[in-house]
Amino acid sequence: MDLGIRGRRAVICAGSKGLGRGCAEALAEAGVDLVINARGAEALNATAADLRSRFGVEVTAVAADIKSEEGRAEVLAAAGDADILVNNAGGPPPGMWHEWTRDDFIAAIDGNMLTPIAMMQALLPGMCERGWGRVVNITSQSVKSPIPVLGLSNTARAGLTGFVAGTSRQVAGKGVVINNLLPGVHDTDRARSLDADYAKSKGISLEEAQKERAAALPTGKYGTPEAFGAACAFLCSVHSAFIIGQNISLDGGVFNSTI
Prior knowledge:
Radius of gyration: 18 Å
Oligomer: single chain
CATH architecture: 3-Layer(aba) Sandwich
């Protein structure tokens, strides 16, 4: 399928590894020029070089912390008139409700709610003025089905979801489409970190933990960044114009609902 976005320009946050890289690869394959961001310069530059060589698109790498005001300024300076924004950032650490302080909540909200909102506030005006734009926010399955040990993430991502619900409908008439992708367990560094926490809590090996967690999924296996990226690319395509403000689960069937 021709996604109709060849020659467009996209900003991919946290795009050097995992789900962000999966999105970057899918968009590059569709002919989109990229501005990719991550904190680690080595992995970021390696990803940028790989995407350039494989897909022949322009890739600008910006090594910066997207959660900081300075980092966002660097990314936005490189973004120019970006047509596509993929918001993504690592989630806060797991824990228990009685352990979290006010500062923990502020950090989570700043990183996983206010940062993507700031990126949208910066880029949406230009998209609206030009009459076309796409935003995909990578949130979490916890938006629909909260995960107790990820309470910080539950809180911050639910707030972002509320912002998107209203904003997406305000800009839809300008040709700008905003949606959220809600990943479940995918084969990424984040999943491996949670695997390790699970193994420690159960007193089992990492391999056993991964098998147990995978067995709990209806699919019986983790998702892949490549498949996730393909879903993201579709939402960034010309074909998504009538998909407005949706929260689309990519969780292997974990969230059990008729509607």
